Amino acid sequence: MQNVTNINRALPHLGVRLCLTARGLRYRLSADGRLDKVGLFVSPRMLFSLTLPQHQARLLYLALVYHLARPGSEVDPATLTEYEHGLAEVRPALEPQLESESATLELTPFQLTRLNTAMLSVINELHTYSLFDRMAGESGRPRSVAVGFDQTLRRLFPRVIQEAAYTSELAEDLLMLRRQLSASIGQAREALAAEEEAAQKARKAARKLWQFWKR
User: Fold this and answer.
1) What are the tens digits of pLDDT across the range 5-19?
2) Which of 11, 138, 144, 163 could join 149 via S-S bond, C-beta 3.0 to 4.6 A?
3) Where in the chain are the domains?
């Protein structure tokens, strides 16, 4: 019988498609400088729809668990508050699908770039896991400082319980998945850059309008 890893590596491809949704609010700058909400507007919003085989979906979930367990991982350094729509929203969307043959996620450009960071972090953790397993021996000490990571790893990939070195294979699988997503990650970065440029122009225009009303 083939093991799970070989079966999933034989799956043809990872499905990624772009979606555009329309959502948002229109604001009006009042004479006293306040922004008043006046209604909905239609604005295209990019979403990346990912269809993942079970093995890859579990790898992404493991990356989410590791990332979210790290203090400050979802804190915006500019505001020192948690990201409003970051990876904390993605984990509960993926978790119920982990027992299915495949899973589907819809991610914003920001979430996809954050997921890239999470994948890089957990790849390093998986590469060193077997070393910490040997150091821990029979002591029962956790192999990772990320809360819940050990339990999640062993639940999703029980082979690790008897063969800690299997984590190196998982790291390579995750690296391969990241390469498959690299084009989409690049598109996400471009979308974020364009969004920031548009926001800067909007702020500049609002300042000019406010200066006009002050005259």
Assistant:
1) 232 333 345 666 655
2) 144
3) 4-15+51-214
* Biggest CA pair distance of the chain: 80
3 state SS for 86-120: CHHHHHHHHHHHCCCCEEEEEECHHHHHHHHHHHH
Q: Are 108 and 85 in contact (CB under 8 A)?
A: yes
Half-sphere exposure of 119 (CA within 13 A, CB side): 24
Q: C-alpha distances in angstroms, 101 versus 45, 76, 129, 165, 170? A: 29, 35, 27, 25, 18
- Can you say how many angstroms the Cα of residue 174 is from the centroid of all Cα atoms in its chain? 13
Q: Which of 201, 141, 180 is nearest to 12 (CA)?
A: 180
Structure tokens at 174: 């995750």
Q: What is the pLDDT of residues 77-118, one digit of tens each?
A: 888 888 888 999 999 999 999 999 999 999 999 999 999 999
- The structure's pTM equals 0.74
Give the E-state strand segments of 8-101 in sequence order.
Answer: 15-22, 25-29, 35-40, 44-53, 75-76, 81-82
